[in-house]
Predict the structure.
Amino acid sequence: MSRHFDAIVIGTGQAGPSLAARLAGAGRSVAIIERHKFGGTCVNTGCIPTKTLIASANAAHLARRGAELGFQVNGDVCLDMKRVKARKDEISGRSNKGVEEWLRGLKNCTVIQGHARFDSPHSVVVNDELLESDKIFINVGGRATIPAFPGIHDVPFFTNSSMVDVDFLPEHLVIVGGSYIGLEFGQMYRRFGSQVTIVEMGPRLIGREDEDVSDEVRKIVELEGIEIRLNAKCISLAKRESGIAVRMECTEGSPEVVGTHVLLAVGRTPNTDDLGLEHAGVLMDEHGYIVIDDQLQTSVPGIWALGDCNGYGGFTHTAYNDYEIVADNLLNADHRRVSDRIHTYALYTDPPLGRCGMTDTEIRKSGRAALAVKYPMSKVGRAIEKGETQGFIKISVDAETKQILGAAILGTGGDEVVQVLLDVMYAKAPYTVVKRAMHIHPTVAEFLPTVLSKLEPFA
Ligand SMILES: Cc1cc2nc3c(=O)[nH]c(=O)nc-3n(C[C@H](O)[C@H](O)[C@H](O)COP(=O)(O)OP(=O)(O)OC[C@H]3O[C@@H](n4cnc5c(N)ncnc54)[C@H](O)[C@@H]3O)c2cc1C
């Protein structure tokens, strides 16, 4: 038994459902396959649950600052973790249900639940059924990496997937991994009321960022009482009477941190290992990411790879942009490319970090002549009024073209404000456009012209 479709989409993450809807809307018969939860990582175990939980943590943090802001909370600020989780479940669940109902309601679209594996370049098998198509779109995402630490099989641990379902307060949460996911969970749980230790293998937190960004983020989270352990080599895990030990070789500090609970946040692994790609001849790189060209086509004609599984992005907006590129190229004969997009993302600590374009390190490596400025948030009126003056605004521009090369806005509203600069970068307009613009008072964005008036040769 086999069924033929004009297109097959594997996975219902951030690219698959929109692509299926667009193709079905254009009259193509589409099969979309999901093995687990509709909406994938972002909806169920990533962006939506974490940002919902962070909202509860930040509200608790603000309530604790009552004395400073002129109000009083009668009694201690205590989190009811069951209600915190119930709120997260409701918001995340609504999206999950919304994606499923949307797909099931689409004309020309067949929803199939099960694990898909390639059988040939033009067919996949799901639940023992063969589905055939000349166009197959892979949107299988990734999962938390489980490192081969000695002792890992002897102790319980959380990953992002299980951590978002916690409905109690861990007494002491030890997080292995001091990058984006580790930091977001770390500050969240500290604000919920846990003792938190972050153990990082590298010499600094968020090692992909510039050193001054890493240092400032470290200062911010340490001020809240999070303990940071850097340069932790040879990590192993072991059971102790009082909990779980994370053991490490390090240059300073105790070689062992014992916590009541451990969260592993050491990276992501693409879900490409059980997809039968070898039957289709689709090439992967040494990390298991599917090799694609600038229009997201794999090494096999008629097969595309979108989202986290292609290693070009790692964000919801990059997965969604992948869908737009593929759909516009196929249906509108538009020649959109992955290389047209500008790197941008945010780290949702409080204050957040909004990033776009190149880092200082990348600019230095490129050898181009640049101008740069760094401006403290403590001089930004809006931040002062809110009592949130941590961080800085950092912008670099090309000395010749005057176009913006990159920015890091670590400060209140940084995730939103950075997009003012991003859009000017997409327009390929000079920074002077922002410098001459009139912005709304009082906002963080209104300071961008002031900041840009202080550009100096890049050190
Ligand atoms: C804790 C955390 C926080 C995050 N926060 C943010 C954020 O704030 N902003 C942001 O932009 N990004 C964030 N991300 C990243 C974001 O979640 C991902 O980049 C995004 O979800 C990737 O989408 P995707 O479509 O590639 O895959 P996914 O969303 O992972 O979806 C893939 C789907 O494919 C299904 N699947 C896999 N294999 C098969 C198969 N063989 N057969 C059938 N179905 C299959 C899976 O079950 C899954 O539903 C976060 C990630 C994590 C882990």
User: Anything to note?
Assistant: Residues 393 and 409 are 4 Å apart (CA to CA). The pocket of flavin-adenine dinucleotide is lined by residues 10-15, 33-37, 40-42, 46-47, 50, 115-116, 139-142, 160, 181, 271, 275, 307-308, 314-317, 319, 348 (CB under 6 Å). The mean pLDDT is 97.
